[in-house]
Amino acid sequence: MIRIVWIAALGCVLALVLYIPSAVPPDRLMQTVRAEHELNTTLWGSAAADRILERMLSFQANGVNVSSPPPETVQVAGPGINTAMAAEFGQMSTRLFASPYFKSVDALFTLATLRAATLLHVLPLLLVFMGVCAIDGFAVRSVRAREFADHSAELYTLSATTGIALLSLVLVALFLPFAVSPLYTIGALLLMLFMLSRAIANYHLIR
Questions:
Q1: Distance (Å, rounded) from C-alpha 51 to C-alpha 40?
Q2: Measured on CA atoms in the order 98, 64, 17, 175, is the torsion positive or negative?
Q3: Core-most of 3, 147, 171, 198, by most CB within 10 Å?
Q4: Are 27 and 39 in contact (CB under 8 A)?
Q5: Closest Cα to residue 37, out of 106, 114, 113?
Q6: 50-98: pLDDT as tens digits
């Protein structure tokens, strides 16, 4: 079941990455980037929103621009036709990578990078909540073991599957072409951590 959830999530992400650039123009995706920056300004303040934007730009500076054509390879000089073919392939590569589709791919990854930078902004909160959930899960499991109470395999499977499904939804939400409030993704991650704590509490090791 868990494997099916992961495969479905990765399939959705792949479908979004391939389909959205062909259906949504880059200008609309950049408008979504600006709208989410305004949401960040409203939620965290202008200083925090600017730091998120700077983090996004640093990620992009270290990445690869999809719409930029690859560097030309060194070719051995030859007579006539080789030079003409090399020039023709260079022009074709320039036209291909300058197409609206590849520009939309760049804009989509800009949007996904901004959302990832927003999640990194609240990472300390998520780490604290993760520690609390882990302590709670292990404490409940320890109490049940001392009381000789049975661990529920059904609750373990349900909790683990729900937690992974929520994480998959957050991964898919990174590539949605419309504005998504960071509160939804943060809430989904907090709920995921809580469900994983229930999975720890009901985990039973078969010996």
A1: 10
A2: negative
A3: 198
A4: no
A5: 114
A6: 999 999 988 887 765 555 555 554 444 455 445 655 555 555 555 555 5
As given in the structure block, the two tokens for residue 60 are 């992009």
Kindly state the DSSP code that residue 177 receives in the 8-state scheme. Answer: S
**CA 39/CA 13 separation, integer angstroms:** 24
Cα separation, 112 vs 50, whole angstroms: 17
CA dihedral over 61, 67, 68, 73, signed as positive or negative: positive
pLDDT digits (tens, 9 = 90+) for 164-192: 889 888 988 999 888 999 999 999 999 99
Buried b (16+ CB within 10 A) or exposed e, 76-109: eeeeeeeeeeeeeeeeeeeeebeeeebbbbbbbb
Instruction: Find which of 1-5, 11-15, 35-39, 77-81 is predicted with most confidence, using mean pLDDT.
Output: 35-39
Separation of alpha carbons 190 and 192, rounded Å: 5
